[in-house]
Every structure is written in structure tokens, then in C-alpha cells.
Amino acid sequence: ISEGVFTMLVNTLWVRCHCAVLLSGHFPLVCSGSRVAAFSSFPFLRARKKKSEYGCVDTERYASLVRAAVSTRISSQTPESIEKEDRWLYGSIIRSKAEASKMVKNPYPLLNDAKGVVQSDCEGRPMSKIPLQRDASQPAIASVTKILQKTMSAKQAFCLERWRRKKIAELGEEGFKEYTTKLFMQGKLFHSAIEGILTQENSPKDDMECCEEVDGYLQSVGHVLDDVTGARAIESAVHHEALQYLGVVDCVALYKGSLCVIDWKTSEKPKPFIHNTFDNPLQVAAYIGALNSDKNYNYQVESGLIVVAYKDGTQAHSHWLSAEHVQQYWERWLLRLEEYMEKA
């Protein structure tokens, strides 16, 4: 056989073998000396295997550690071991005891049985405006405002002090004094304007035109004043003889047909929820209890209303205190009163 024929036969056999290997799916792993290796589609199969970096690790030395790691699927730490470790690092745990809810030592009723049924028909009845008077011969009787200030919570005192320091940082000492004086005068003018609206026949619009300083406040409470009728008391003093405290109610009138104590407030920040008013509900409850006890008033009240007015004329937020709510705040007021008496 000639050399050319031999070469053709070898090439033919090589092609047939290569096709058979491709169709079978079995590729030779070591073909470095054959022509198949030259035509392989997977050159990385011919690459020399890299030596692992873990090959030089002393496996006998770390055998126990490996066995401990793979012998369990959960952490070796437990709540007991963590607590033991924390005790060793930070010392013994001091668990605070839950503060027991305080109970009123001397409960006193909110309503006065001697006055009979609560009256709601106030149309045509005389309006009271009793000035606040103190008897010099008797020890000074604390006001509702003073009692609440002296017994406020640490959190509330902190917030008040932070607000004061912030304002002093912005305005300075003298500027802060002028600012608080202006707020006081605006509140006084606002209450005077409300009194003029409730006691005179002129409309709220007329009062707004003659009092530019509180124009925004009056505009803010306009929708509330539309539902207030039959005023029975305006800026009138109340005195609880049994519990020995006094105060001055802003207003006692019908609100949507229900007789209540109304407390007018001004605020720079919105107070859409009752908890935003802090101790105001306790103040209203204290006034209601004192009015019901006071002999100068031949009627009594069960409900209250807190109205928060805004200088920019934004619609005021009104918070209605039902008889049930007033009773709850009355009990909290009694606790604050007892705390004040103990300190005094």
C-alpha cells in the first residue's frame, strides 16, 4: 500500500472515531498525545489541577475542632450561657419592680347630691362672674394651676425645660421674657374677646374687626362658638371647700345642648389628640368638681370641653370630655392633689 493511501485511511479512521466520541458524549480526560486532544472543545479539561491551599494544613491538630463544629447544628451558646457571660462582663442583673398603681387614699365624689339632677336648661338664667378672693385670715389655698405645676411628671417637666432653653437660645433672656409676656397678653385678650361674644349680642365678625391682635384665634374657634349657647359663668372663681383648692373657670355654657365647663386654650403647635393637651383634662375635671361643690352655684356639671385655638386661623381642635372621661380624670386629679398635700 502506498504512503498516500495509508495516510488517507488513517485520517478516515480518526474522523470516524472522533464523531463516535462526540455522539456518545464521553470525552477522554487524558488525551495529551493524541490528535483528539488537539480538537477538544474543552481545553480546561487538559489544564493542570491547582494545588489546594488547605493541603498543607495540619489536619490532626484541628481534628477535634472540626468534629465539634460538624457534630451539632445549633449554636453552642444558650440563654443561660449568655446570661452567665453578661454577668461576668457587666455584673449581676438588677431587675426593676413594676410600679404598683396608686390608689386614692381619700376618694371624694365628683357630683354633689345636694344639688340634685344636673341642669341643662340654661336659657334665660343669670350668668355668674365671681371674682377670685382670698381670705387673709386663713392659710393660702392652692390653685389648680399651681397644684398641677408642682406635681407634673418628670417627662413633662423635662419637655417644658427643653422648650424654655430652646427659646432662650433663639431669643436670649430678654427676648424670652418679652415673648412669654406677649403670649400671656394674647391669651388674656383672647379670653376677653370670647367673653364679649358670649355675653353681648354683637356677632363674632364684629369682635374680630375690633381686636386685630387675636383675629386669628377668633377665626380659629368660629365653628365652635356657633354651637355654644346659654352661658352660665364666664371667668368665674370656684372653690372646693372640702378639698381646699380653688380656680377660675373660663366658661360654663351649653355646647350642642349639653352643659359643660369649657376651657379655651391657645397653642403654637397643633393638638389634634386629647393626650397632646397634657394636664388640661385634669384641670377641667378639677374645675368641675370645685363648681359642683361650691355653694355659689345652684347647679352642677358632668362634662367638659377643651378648645385649642391657633393664631394663624387654622380650625381649632375641640376635645369633648364625656361624664365617664371626666370621672377618670377626676380620680387622677385627686392623686395629684394628695401628692401636692404630702409635699406641702
UniProtKB/TrEMBL annotation:
Q: Name one GO molecular function term.
A: single-stranded DNA exodeoxyribonuclease activity
Highest taxon above the source species: Eukaryota
- Signal peptide positions on this chain: 1-33
Q: Pfam families given for it? A: PDDEXK_1
Q: Which GO terms describe its biological process?
A: DNA repair; mitochondrial DNA replication
Segments forming domain PD-(D/E)XK endonuclease-like? 159-316
Its keywords, alphabetically, are:
DNA damage, DNA repair, Exonuclease, Hydrolase, Mitochondrion, Nuclease, Signal
Instruction: Identify the PANTHER family for this entry.
Output: MITOCHONDRIAL GENOME MAINTENANCE EXONUCLEASE 1
In its UniProt entry, what is this protein called?
Answer: PD-(D/E)XK endonuclease-like domain-containing protein
A GO term from the CC aspect: mitochondrion
